[in-house]
Specification:
alpha/beta, 5 strands, 5-stranded mixed sheet, 8 helices
Length: 209
Amino acid sequence: MLWIGYSLIAPPIGHSWYLIPGTYFLLLLCLASWGLVLEERRLGPLPAVAVALSLATMFLLPSRLREHSDRWQGSNFTRGRTGVYRTLGRWIGDKGLGDATVLMREPGYFAYFADNPMVDGAGLVTKGIYFHGPVERQTAPEEIVERHRPGLIVSPPRYWPGLPLDSYVPLYHPVPIRTLYVRKSLFADRFAQLVADWLSQDALTGRSR
């Protein structure tokens, strides 16, 4: 029941793989209905409907999933996301930031290339963060940052309204629409020479940060 429930309330059904849990539910329904067939020694309406739906789903869903996968894997949008996450994960490790907690909304593919502790801004793998549902129940970005105090924040491809960045500085842009932010205290600790260079340049030009 949890599987079929997730199929119904999950994010946009345009992601065809969200239908897979519903397929498992239909197969379980078929098994339960088969017990009725053996007990009553006849094919009643429930077993017949369950079998028909299961056969139709098993026939149509694989081709739908294959078409969906080919379309997504070959899209510039998907390649841009996976490529950026791979670049970011490796870059963070190369710069000695592998112990810093990272806040982002899509940690899965990124976490494959980075060993950082993760905070999922969408709440899928981080307890206590609510991304979907009524507005009053959703967790505000300010609350997420205050509670978890991430050392690094990866901005989503679209604007993240309410994300507090006063204590962070932009550190790396793998592509124009993606920014890696670092907490100022962590930046001063790990990039002391770079901070000194920036301060000396500011002193020479009369600017202040």
